[in-house]
Amino acid sequence: DANIYLFVRVARLGARYVLVLAEDRTESYRLDEVRRDFVANISHELKTPIGAVSLLAEAMAEASDDAVQVRKFAKRLTKESERLTRITREIIELSRLQAADVLTKPDLVDIDHVVAIAIDQNRVAADSRRVNLVSGGDAGAEVYGDEPLLAVALHNLVANAIQYSAKGSRVGVGVSHEDGIVEIAVTDQGVGIPEEDLDRVFERFYRIDPARSRHTGGSGLGLSIVKHVVQNHGGDVRVWSQPGSGSTFTIRLPEASSASAASLGEEQ
Ligand code: ADP
């Protein structure tokens, strides 16, 4: 949207002059709009699991004589409440990021360490899905930023790569740095992403196949968190994909130098 919002003040200075002060408020209008959309999406997103929880509770009360049924409903209740917990956690992370106060004091972060954290956190999931999770490090790749947030971002990419992979396939995490850019690539051999969805997967709550993602407990927030974290670090995230063959998500961040530390500080 190409609208520009100006806040204009006019003051008369004597008989011959008029002082006009114009302030560009486009960004704050845009942020208001983003916030409104976000709240609408959250409400929509929470309604489904909350509705399911109350229906399941009712069903459980009615089936109280039938132990098998009760166990079945209890299992589904657990699933729905896990889903609620996950969505809530992701919403909190996202709103913390949107408050944009997270990088006031960027630290020097060793990217190899961030990769090690993300691999560690996903090891169990990879093993249980029989996915071969491998990483190639790059000692010396450093950026300025927030290590826990970068770990969340990479965790989300690795978790997706495993989630959308077939048994026995490979997920690789590679790091390289060149010309002042640190690149982290997460590659899978999974289902891939149709071309028409490539631009949209980073949007909040966007899922390619809601039925499948809901089944896997997805909220559609994971990649928008990745995008926010990476942008807050002055970087970008891109995706290449071939439906049926796999996907590669690449995070690119400015390599640590005194200049990058200063400019991150300024933005906040
Ligand atoms: P979700 O919680 O649903 O996984 P994300 O924001 O992490 O939400 O991802 C959005 C959608 O992008 C997912 O629902 C999925 O359809 C698709 N997607 C993300 N990563 C991959 C991947 N590595 N391979 C295939 N599809 C993916």
Automatic annotation (TrEMBL):
GO cellular component: plasma membrane
GO molecular function: phosphoprotein phosphatase activity; phosphorelay sensor kinase activity
Keyword Transmembrane helix tagged: yes
Highest taxon in the source lineage: Bacteria
Catalytic activity line of the entry: ATP + protein L-histidine = ADP + protein N-phospho-L-histidine
Subcellular location as annotated: Cell membrane
EC number: 2.7.13.3
Enzyme class: transferase
Species for this entry: Glaciihabitans arcticus
Protein name: Sensor-like histidine kinase SenX3
Portion held of the full protein: 117 to 384 of 384
Segments forming domain Histidine kinase: 41-257
Keyword vocabulary terms for this entry: Kinase, Membrane, Phosphoprotein, Transferase, Transmembrane, Transmembrane helix, Two-component regulatory system
Biological processes, Gene Ontology terms: cellular response to phosphate starvation
Chief location of this protein within or outside the cell: membrane
